[in-house]
Specification:
three-stranded antiparallel beta sheet; alpha/beta; Rossmann fold; five-stranded parallel beta sheet; 486 residues; single chain
Length: 486
Amino acid sequence: MKPQPSIGGTCPAPGRGRPALGRVRRALRLVGWNALFLVAGLALIGVVGETYFRLQAPFVEIRHPLTWSPIVGAVFRPNAEVRHTNHVDFWTESRVNSLGFVDREPISPERVAASCHIAMMGDSFVEALQVPIADKFHVRLEELAAQELEHLDVTTSAFGISGTGQINQLPYYDEFARHLRPALLVLVFVHNDFMNNSPILEGLHRDVDPALLRNTTATRGADGTITLRPPRMPESRPTTPWYNRYTPARATARLTAISPLAAWLNAKMSVSSSHDTDPEMIAQVALLSQRSPAYAALFDGWRPTTRAGIDDLFLLAEDMPAVYDDALDFTAFALDQFKERADRDGAAMVILSTHYMRTQGNLGFDRLTALAEPRRIPVIDQYDYILSQGADPWNDVRWAHDGHWNAAGHQWAAEALLQYLKENQGICMMRKSSAPPSPPPSWLTATSRSRPANAASDGAAEPETVLTESDEGVTEDNRSKVAPNA
């Protein structure tokens, strides 16, 4: 019997069903299988890549065993092992000395009396975890001087912690370097030191309330006077509206710290956005402005950039916001403090201006020399020295994926200092080696003899406070990045 046509049309052919729906289902299944194969392939590539990098690398875990001292702030745990890498350019393993710095053991009292000692103060460029201790500039300087200035009997030591400025470094001199009675005190200066010396800019950069910074810092009173403030106990820091936020940058830092593949990808694909405005920092500026009219005046008209580029204005801007001029005042205060100590102890003092101070023009270098010249502090220009050697002061001096000095950068820093020493040998001849060290400043004496309010008073040893890499002042982003904020 023939099928009868339906009203308004013909009957569908037997066995045809719904062809359009069937095609959609087949297409969806195909897409699903393709997506599954893609995810499986990417996962396999990730596993293979991670395995490859872990097998190739001398080690994977970054180990910075930091501790906290109520006298000097954050230092390394004495005699501990430090491991540092950016998972691309370098892997270094170093031993912390008994003072808490990644350097050789301090020289003996007998050698102190006989030698011309040079003490280096600085941040991550002096800490220099990117190279072995033997390649650090102060060690190379000692070796070069032994060859070319043997009669001076030069010895060196280095006191550097990442993320510190000159104000933060004052206790390093008071508690450690001055007892070595240096003939020459060298302050190694990077452009971010201007920022580190300012409690306001440093607090914004660290994502910490400026009043709660952990290391030695300084404050400005109502009369405009700047005074030192000793280190603050980590436990004494209360929660702030922005502290400990989980940001994408922190998430990336934590991932790259445990995965060499992620670190390699981040190093190869990172794109700088240091000149974009930062809505979160703008909100923090508004909060601080509400707290104090003095803050509001300093922030007037300023649109903050991202935290990674907050210090760039010192190199790039002819006219800076008031908060940046304020940072120059704090840097001037730090230089005065070091100069006062050097003069008191019979030491000469010089600033080593790193290549960074002139790689984006001369504004940063000019600002530094404008502070140094009235104080009669000589400035050694590493950038100029590198040019005199026919080298590139940017590409030849640094790692491909990290802005700190490579071995060549340390060598050129040592050679620039050696050249200065050759021209000023009287520094060693006039050293007051017979003069005993004078007492430390009164505020430091008081700090070293007092205990926190919540500490036991029974004479028991105070428990060691161990800092993590995410703590203020010792963050991982200062140790391995293209443009160091050291």
